[in-house]
Amino acid sequence: MSSVKLLTRLEFFSQIAKTFPEFSYLGDPILHTPTNPVSVDEGREIGQKLGKILIKYHQLVGYGRGLAANQISIPKSVFVTFLDDQIQTYINPKIIKFSQDQCLYRELCLSSGIIWADIKRSATITLQWTDNTGQPQKEEFTGPQARLLQHEAEHLIGIHSLDHAEPGTIEFCLSDPLLEKLRLI
Q: Which of 87, 122, 148, 156 is deepest in the core (most CB within 10 A)?
């Protein structure tokens, strides 16, 4: 491991932590506490706040695709994703089906700073949630989007990705996370 790369990443993380003081990081008990359901109006309001923060984060660092309410110390069951330059809000989401097929991916989380690990997840899921208009939704997702939704949904039930990292894979992120590839197992 290059000490120069690590120092650069630590300095970068320090800048991020100062820019986003509302973020909760590893060790904060809120990340391991299940969230509470919300009304559509409250979920919409939280989603707007999360979306603004996630877009600002993405503009600053060039990555970041999801943010759960408890990652900014709001113990409510809401998360947002940022895909194809659009914010999508998921209110009271629940994964109702997991495929047996799994894949590996080295995941980085906004709440773990510069630490990442290989995480095994289902290749396909079915998610149920309420959208911003109050309409119930249910959809099957595959590939990277399925992984992202699993990652964010786990935050809401008090599980951090590093809690179930593949043994021996937790390490400092010293390379570009945008170059990571999904690996089927």
A: 156
Q: Among 87, 108, 111, 100, which Cα is nearest to 32's?
A: 111
Could you give the CA distance from residue 154 to residue 110 in angstroms, rounded to a whole number?
14
State yes or no: is 152 an active-site residue. yes
CA atoms within 13 A on the CB side of 38: 29
Domain spans in the chain, listed from the N-terminal domain onward:
3-184
- Cα–Cα distance between 180 and 5 in angstroms, integer? 18
The pLDDT score that the predictor gives to residue 42 is 98
pTM over 0.90: yes
Give the model confidence (pLDDT) of 151-164 as tens digits.
Answer: 999 999 999 999 99
Q: What is the DSSP letter of 76?
A: B
Q: What is the pLDDT of residues 96-155, one digit of tens each?
A: 999 999 999 999 999 998 899 999 999 999 999 999 999 999 999 999 999 999 999 999
81 contact partners, CB below 8 Å, separation of at least 6: 65, 66, 87, 88, 90, 145, 148, 149, 152
Query: Which homologous superfamily is 3-184 in?
Result: Peptide deformylase (3.90.45.10)
Provide the pairing of β-strand 78-83 with 66-68. antiparallel
C-alpha 175/C-alpha 177 separation (Å) is 6
